[in-house]
Amino acid sequence: MSAARRVRSVIGPLDFNPVTPAAHTSPLITALYGPPGMEVEDLRAYLVAEWQIMIAGGLEDLSGKIVRVGHMGKAATSDYVERLLDGVEAYLRLKGYAVPQRKALS
User: Fold this and answer.
1) What is the distance, to the nearest Å, from the Cα of residue 65 to the centroid of all Cα atoms in its chain?
2) Backbone conformation region of residue 60, classed left if phi is above 0, alpha if psi is from -120 to 50, else beta
């Protein structure tokens, strides 16, 4: 499974919503709105501080509203993707969001 598909398949059910329709997404980046009430900049800071993972924020009108996850180079490896997903789930649990059991890669 590609990094983009794995990220989207796990993060989508966590109430993150895509910025663009599925028919127009890129295999190199995923842009998502966070769950209602979540501060996306707080998630970004948490991932850097606690997991040493950097994801981008939105630009211009989308600043503070979305996150952008790249799927290139090291960030496209399954180890990196699973670590990113672990970090996002840990953040959500810390903030009191319900996080379902993630399906393992087959």
Assistant:
1) 13
2) left
DSSP state of 38: -
DSSP class of residue 2?
A: -
Domain limits, the chain: 3-94
Positions of the chain with pLDDT lower than 70, given as ranges: 104-106
Model pLDDT, residue 105: 63
Coil, helix or strand for 70?
strand
For CA atoms 58, 63, 64, 65, the dihedral sign is negative
Q: Are 52 and 30 in contact (CB under 8 A)?
A: no
How distant, in Å, are the alpha carbons of 24, 47, 91, 94 from that of 79? 26, 15, 18, 22
In CATH terms, the fold of domain 3-94 is Aspartate Aminotransferase, domain 1 (3.90.1150)
